[in-house]
Structure formats: structure tokens, C-alpha cells
Specification:
Helices cover about 50% and strands about 10% of the residues. The termini are far apart. It is mainly alpha-helical. The longest helix is centred in the middle third of the chain and has 44 residues. It has one domain.
């Protein structure tokens, strides 16, 4: 094990740079019916009593409703986009596991625990160390949302509080709880020893 500063890295035998499977990500939110999402946002506004207490003219009320609905839809699309990244990352980790198992020099770097062992968070750290361009998506938040939700729920399942304030803390807590279960010593993969490509699957 190599220690650089406060970071510990596993020792990868030899000097070869290993190519990992590509990370395939749908970078645009995969929402087929934006009109239905907008309708759910309007329903949520009514259910959560989101209008201010002071009286509004009909015109101001319509404008306020539209602004709130658009904001909720924007928050929801951001949630879906993060979830998609997290789902793609977990699938990529599964493929990396297969790659490691099939290469003698990498096989012993992974523990044999049953998926989803928290030690696989080393792959998440590798993505961060490789500075993967995500377009503003937080990798740990994305994985945390995927760990929390097996499928992205429709907007009507959320409260406005979750969409506006709670989804980041929930996702980050989920990720760090999962990653924190990694048995000692916690070691990262040396980023200079691995390479992979990232493909945007939303372009098809």
C-alpha cells in the first residue's frame, strides 16, 4: 500500500495502465411526458399550500403558480439527472468488478464480499480523482440517490421540502453511510494506472 499525504492507495502490480469499461451515461433527464410532470407540479402546489398568505390578483396568482411549477419541475429534472448518473455509475462498477476478476494482476485488489459491498466506493473515488466531467452533477450525491431509490419515483411522490432542501442531505448521508462501511484499511485506486472513456447515451 502506498501512502501519499493522508491518502492510501492500493499497490497495483507492474507498471501497465489498465483500461476499464466505458462509463455510459444518459446525461439528459429521461422524462418522456413533461406535460404530466408539470401537472404533478401543479397538484403538489395545491397539496402543499405553497401560495403566500397575502391576497393576490388572479393574474399574479397565475404567474406565481407557473413560477412555482416550473421551479418544482426543474428541481425534479435535476433529481432524475443525478439518479441516472448514479445508476450508470453502479452499473459501471459492476462491469469493473468483472474486469478485475478476469485479470490476474487486478483480481486480488477487490474483496470477495457480496455486492453492493461498500468497498466499491473506491471506484467512486477513482471517478472523482480522474476529474470526470459531469456537467455539474455531484458524483457522490448521484450514487447516494441511486442507493436510496431503485427507480426514480414520479414527482407526485415527493414533497416540495424534499425537492428544494432535503434531497442533497439525504443523498449525501446515504452515500457516506455506505462508503463508511468499508473495512479498514480504506484504499483508493491510483488514478494514473487506470483509464476509461465516458459516453453520453442521450445523443442517440
Amino acid at each position: 500500500m502506498e501512502i501519499l499525504g493522508d491518502r492510501k492507495f492500493v499497490e497495483v502490480p507492474g507498471s501497465t495502465t489498465h483500461e476499464l469499461p466505458p462509463l455510459l451515461v444518459r446525461m439528459a433527464p429521461d422524462v418522456k411526458r413533461l406535460d404530466k410532470v408539470m401537472g404533478m407540479a401543479n397538484d403538489l402546489i395545491d397539496q402543499e399550500d405553497m401560495f403566500p398568505a397575502q391576497p393576490l390578483t388572479a393574474e399574479a396568482q397565475d404567474r406565481r403558480r407557473m413560477d412555482l411549477a416550473l421551479n418544482l419541475v426543474d428541481q425534479y429534472l435535476g433529481f432524475v439527472q443525478h439518479w441516472q448518473w448514479g445508476n450508470s455509475i453502479l452499473e459501471w462498477i459492476r462491469q469493473c468488478e468483472t474486469t478485475f476478476e478476469n485479470r490476474i494482476e487486478l483480481r486480488n485488489l477487490l474483496s470477495a464480499d457480496v455486492w453492493p459491498h461498500a468497498g466499491r466506493s473506491s471506484f467512486v473515488t477513482l471517478l472523482e480523482d480522474k476529474d470526470v466531467k459531469t456537467g455539474g452533477i455531484g458524483i457522490e450525491k448521484a450514487v447516494g440517490l441511486r442507493l436510496t431509490f431503485r427507480e426514480p419515483p414520479p414527482l407526485r411522490c415527493f414533497s416540495n421540502q424534499f425537492l428544494f432542501y432535503l434531497n442533497s442531505p439525504v443523498a449525501n448521508t446515504a452515500y457516506h453511510t455506505w462508503a463508511g462501511m468499508t473495512p479498514s484499511p480504506i484504499s483508493a485506486f491510483p488514478p494514473e494506472r487506470f483509464m476509461f472513456n465516458v459516453f453520453n447515451m442521450s445523443l442517440d
